[in-house]
Fold this protein.
Amino acid sequence: MFSYSVFKRVSQKTKQFVRYKHRPDHWSILRKKIHPIDKALNHMDDFYKQVFNEKWLRIRKAMLGKQKYVAVINNFGDDTEAMQSLELTGALNMRTLFSLEQGYIKEEKLKNMNNKAMDKILRLDEELEQKIQNKIEKEANESAAQEKPTASDFSLASSLEKAKFDTRRLIDIKDPLSTEALHEFLPATEIKGREDFIPESNHYKMYDPETHFSVKMEKEYDLPFPDHLNIYCYERDNKSDFDSPKRGCTDVFNYYLMDGGSILPILALDLRPGNRFLDMCSAPGGKSLLALQTFFPDVVVSNDSSLSRLNRVRSVYSQFLYDFQEKWVKTGKIRLTNRDGRIISEEEYDRILVDVPCTTDRHSLHENENNIFKPSRIKERLNLPELQKELLVNALKLVERGGIVVYSTCSLSPIQNDGVVHVALKQIWEETNMEFVVKDLSPALLQTRSVFEIAGKGLLRYGHLVLPKPSQNYGPTYFCKLQKIK
Ligand SMILES: C[S@@+](CC[C@H](N)C(=O)[O-])C[C@H]1O[C@@H](n2cnc3c(N)ncnc32)[C@H](O)[C@@H]1O
């Protein structure tokens, strides 16, 4: 076969040439290079298509699109002015949206004294959502069909399509995230050039489906919205950007921008006055700052095992809290600690947030730099569920009786989400006599449905998952609330 080769002149004087067999910047090489973001997309196409079925196309489209933010008003800055200026741009206070929904739900309840109101609301909501979804999926299918040919020639997704699946090992479509099913998820193993896939699928076996233990579940009907928390968002389909935050008279910023999904783990914590709150994996610090805006915790401990990332928390605090060192650190209200969350001990907390390192799905689809799907980070990626489980187990041990732990990720992976909660509870059950209740927030989360699409008990066993969608492009955010009862 004719071999195409190129020469590179290495010396101007001697006019020597080096003969490349494969020139590194040749178009055919560049075209074939699979970047970490491509790898991430291939991985998600393989895995999530089978988990979320027809919803996957819409989630995928949203995650590849523009992420939506909310603005958390800084109560320690020029808050009133900030709220007024945001309202002038058409931003809405989330508290108002939630309470409008609550009012509507109550009204429906009254009208339907036989208490079928919830079913009715859910059904109407689902019907509406389905109509919108069908339209979006139709559009997504059309654009995917146009985009496909070139890149998919060498994608894993296309090779998997051709590959034979061991159908006994695929997730049961009827109950896609049943514990047994997610533990058994195992893609076809005979895939050339994808060696990392094999150890990864082996890794899923650690979630032994044979082990049975009882888990207490309890429905929760209320998701209290702290009085002092003011969070602004744009309504469905409004893709406006918030202006950059501004410094006020005390030189601190007036609001903090964060993914809307990130507020739910903090709301789920149900912070109360006087709480001692540990943010076990806190950097860059958005959720710690959000917890402080409620005015409830007496002490906030922002921990992170990475010193450089902990310095980012310090910097966020300094930008949002006036006289941070004097008023917050020296008074002991905020502590910044640089420890491995797996071995924090001795202290007791009433509230712990375990917002673990994960595959950061949205980020992994956009940034090649430091991407968790880089070949050099395979081992780290495969070890994530183990690390996540150890962090959660330690939080469950640390929290006081009656206290609350919220476990959260920004991944759609059932392994890193319900899977980790499952193994952590199993370990606690085997090793201690502690008891926990998993809170089913589905009824309480109804009030958030004008802002978020949340997958609940139909798709998940323990927690809740904010699903990104083009009209409200937040998340993914998984969160699970656990309360220690013994
Ligand atoms: C998803 S980020 C946390 C985001 C943060 N909660 C927020 O909302 O801004 C996960 C963090 O966990 C930290 N981390 C990783 N391993 C850890 C460990 N063993 N103990 C404590 N923190 C850890 C990482 O350095 C990273 O900053």
Notes: The two ends are 73 Å apart (CA to CA).
